[in-house]
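Meet today's protein:

…
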Amino acid sequence: MFKKKDIFFKTLEEMADTLVVAVEYFASGVSDLSDVSAFAKRMKEMESQCDKYTHTIIKELNKTFITPIERDDILALTKSLDDVLDGIEACASRFEMYYIREKDEYITLFADIILRSAHQIKDAIYLLTQKKLLAIREHTIAINELENQADDVLRVSITTLFANVKDPIELIKRKEIYERLEQTTDYCEDVANTLESIIMRNS
């Protein structure tokens, strides 16, 4: 008989799976902005699904005495994963709100960095649920490096924006989207930092 997977680890895996699916959808969506309403709607659905996983974990924490890792660590990891999906959904909603229809090389670059970060997060979460803690560090280091790349993209994108875009409204819209995308990579780094804390406390 196979042992039933712990509800906390199972739900964290489901959150990581949903995150990857959502970011893959986002990355493909920004290359074709012909129907931003459908794009934003689908992103909202995936963000809502992640909220359900968060509620499941909080509910289980309230009634479970023994947890596989510290309760605070489970809560912090859940929140940081949810923040990543909230961040990417907030970006998608801005495409609809600001009526953005044109592709943008910097948005594409940010989307690629967030997608690679999401895959690293998923790999790390699955290692956590297998209790392979030290192997997680390779992924947390990769996430930190990706966040540094996003910082570089933000600097270049804002510089290029102010050099080339004369319409102040367009400039404000693009600048906010760039900053929100970079902030989403910060949320990915928060996941990595939380995982690092878990490694230190449990290995």
